[in-house]
Amino acid sequence: MTKNARISLIIIAVVVVVVGGFILISKLTGPSTPQQPGSTNAVGPVPAPAMAALVRPDSHKLNDVPNAKVTVVEFLDLECEACRAAYPGVEKLRGEYGDRVTFVMRYFPVPAHRNAELAATVVEAAGKQGKLEAMYHRMYETQASWGDQQVSHRETFFGFARDLGLEMAKFEADVNDPATVERVLRDRKDGVTVGVQGTPTFFINGTKFQGPPSYSALKATIDRELAK
Question: Is 122 exposed, middle or buried (0-12, 13-18, 19+ CB in 10 A)?
Fold first, then answer.
């Protein structure tokens, strides 16, 4: 083999290695995906354009404190086990800070949960007879008996309504009313707008809470906000 032929083979080999390296890097990193508005996981306040979606005039305030210095917003799925785990801590915080902190409940039913949207619709329908919070409690207290199942628990939920003394004809009409479901889904849409990607997701004074929402961690953040 001549000297020139050897040099040519070396050059070809180098080119192959360089091109192969670029292809490998491209496969490992993948294409760049633009971030969708409101889908950030970053620590920090909700962007100003999305703030209106965090608490609407018709949002359900479990504790409504005039001119509250701190507002806690929870996007929840009534069939979510993690939401059920956070529930006792939230109720304890409401008991301790109910005269100083506004607590807001927003629906965020996850489509993978068979009864989540129905459960939220039932709570909303109960609210039309002044029993929203009572039904909200009942859902969490009984979640182990109906959650994570692939069958409809409509009759189970109607049993809850009877237990709570609701006027059943009106309750059924409200559950079946498309406007009731639309009200639930508006909450979920707002959740997507402000960056909710799973449940439960908490916002304290407009900033997404990071990490497991334990009682102690939420309490510490609320105390910091009250101290400002």
Answer: buried
Between 170 and 42, residue with greater pLDDT: 170
Using CA atoms in the order 39, 208, 99, 186, what is the torsion angle rounded to 10 degrees? 10
Partners of 60 in the beta sheet?
105
Point out which residues pair with 61 in neighbouring strands.
104
Query: Please, which pLDDT band fits residue 226 given cuts at 50, 70 and 90?
Result: very high
Using CA atoms, how far apart are residues 24 and 35, in angstroms rounded to an integer?
A: 24
